[in-house]
Design brief:
The chain is an alpha+beta fold. It contains five helices and four strands. Helix 1 (15-38) packs across helix 4 (111-119). The longest helix is centred in the N-terminal third of the chain and has 24 residues, at 15-38.
């Protein structure tokens, strides 16, 4: 039997989903502890840390998968490489290009959503400081001119998360 921490994961999740939720709960608990100690600025530090992580991961994947170019197609290849790099990954977004914009849509399992529910935290302290800066920095490893906008967010009640990326000349 494995220790699952103070916060337990509800039944109904696969073992891989449970592992992802547990890891995300631990990360969010660290984030919240720093917030309690240092206030709102702690979230800005957390955001910068995730930007650094994302950029390093982007450079690593560009090299590993020999991704060439600096256009939106290269950005798409990088995000696809990120998702495919972990074949057991549970969150698998739809990734497509429309009108020179990369669209990433997620509807399935999300460890951040489940972790936020378990911790009963305000959703504004999740994606804006973790996955969003991480993914934008990941994309900027291909081209520093990549821009980003979140159009829909399940944590705000939308049915999907929809994000767009584009390259501003």
């Amino acid at each position: 039997m494995r220790y699952n921490g103070e916060k337990s994961v509800p039944e109904g999740f696969t073992e891989k989903e449970k592992e992802e939720i547990e890891a995300t709960v631990r990360e969010l608990e660290h984030q919240l502890a720093f917030f309690e100690e240092f206030g709102e600025n702690a979230f800005l530090v957390w955001k910068r840390l995730n930007e650094k992580r994302g950029f390093k991961k982007g450079k690593y994947l560009i090299k590993k998968y020999k991704i060439e170019g600096d256009d939106i197609t290269a950005v798409k290849r990088l995000i696809k490489a990120y998702v495919d790099d972990d074949p057991k990954r549970t969150a698998r977004p739809d990734i497509r290009i429309e009108d020179d914009k990369l669209i990433v849509e997620s509807t399935g399992f999300c460890p951040l959503i489940e972790s936020a529910k378990i911790l009963k935290i305000d959703m504004k302290y999740t994606c804006p400081y973790s996955t969003r800066p991480y993914f934008l920095a990941l994309c900027r490893a291909v081209n520093p001119s990549v821009k980003y906008k979140n159009l829909k967010w399940r944590l705000k009640g939308d049915k999907i998360c929809r994000e767009i990326f584009w390259i501003e000349e």
